[in-house]
Amino acid sequence: MESHKELMRSYLCESLRELMVRSLFEKITIKQICDRAGVIRATFYNYFDDKYDCLGSIVRQDIGTLPEDEDIESFIRRVLETIEENRDFYKAAYQVTGQNSFEEMVRSSLAEFLKAYLDKRRKDSLLPRYSNDLLSRYYSECIAFDIREFVFHEEQMQGVEGMTRMVIDLMHTSLVDLLR
User: Fold this and answer.
1) Band of residue 178 on the pLDDT scale cut at 50, 70, 90
2) For the chain, domain boundaries
3) The pTM is what?
4) What φ, ψ does residue 124 adopt, rounded to 5°?
5) Distance CA 105, CA 144 (A)
6) Percent of the chain whose pLDDT exceeds 70
7) Closest CA to 102 of 49, 144, 155, 150
8) Which DSSP letter does residue 25 get?
9) Phi-psi region for residue 38, left (φ > 0), alpha (ψ -120 to 50) or beta?
């Protein structure tokens, strides 16, 4: 069961998520987030530095952590299912650009996840000259691109299963393979 602190953090995140579907992120205030969650402003600042921090928390929550038994395909599918359930939020969130861009939040959260994944499961004999940090950043760029495509062009991706298949196929096939 979630602790009180985790529940409050979740309420505040959900409040921001709901507001973003109806309003531009730039116009949403901390007071609006708090009013929607039924708490005072000081409570918000017990959990987040600002609304960008709250938005980043939503991304980290949606991407999640690495269960022991989850493989990369299941991870991709789980993330895409979450995005599909919250597509309107994601379309709005991608409008957050600049220094604290939503897209950068997605990339950094994916890189964090992938680094942990590689640290646990990578075979040392494959591409030993490249660090898990470099590989996680490389693949996070690719997956972030795929997520953006899925958010804005889902009809071309044939749903969660079609997009999952595409991501896995592209991960298994290098550019060199395509040019042979």
Assistant:
1) confident
2) 4-179
3) 0.89
4) -60, -25
5) 10
6) 97
7) 144
8) G
9) left
Backbone torsions φ then ψ of 37, nearest 5 degrees = -85, -10
Give the span between the Cα atoms of 24 and 29, in whole angstroms: 10
- Backbone phi and psi for residue 69, each to the nearest 5 degrees, phi listed first: -95, 5
Among 30, 76, 101, CA closest to 168? 76
Task: Return the structure tokens found at 143.
Answer: 């997956």
Through-space distance between the first and last CA atoms of the chain, rounded to whole angstroms: 53
pLDDT in tens, 4-28: 888 999 999 999 999 999 999 999 9
Amino acid making up residue 145: F
Indicate the CATH number for domain 4-179.
Answer: 1.10.357.10
Asked if residues 60 and 109 have their Cβ atoms less than 8 Å apart, the reply is yes
User: Any idea what DSSP says for residue 86?
Assistant: T
Query: How distant, in Å, are the alpha carbons of 17, 58, 93, 113, 151 from that of 105?
Result: 15, 10, 10, 12, 15
Structure tokens at 72: 């990369």
**What's the pLDDT score for residue 158?**
82
Distance CA 84, CA 167 (A): 16
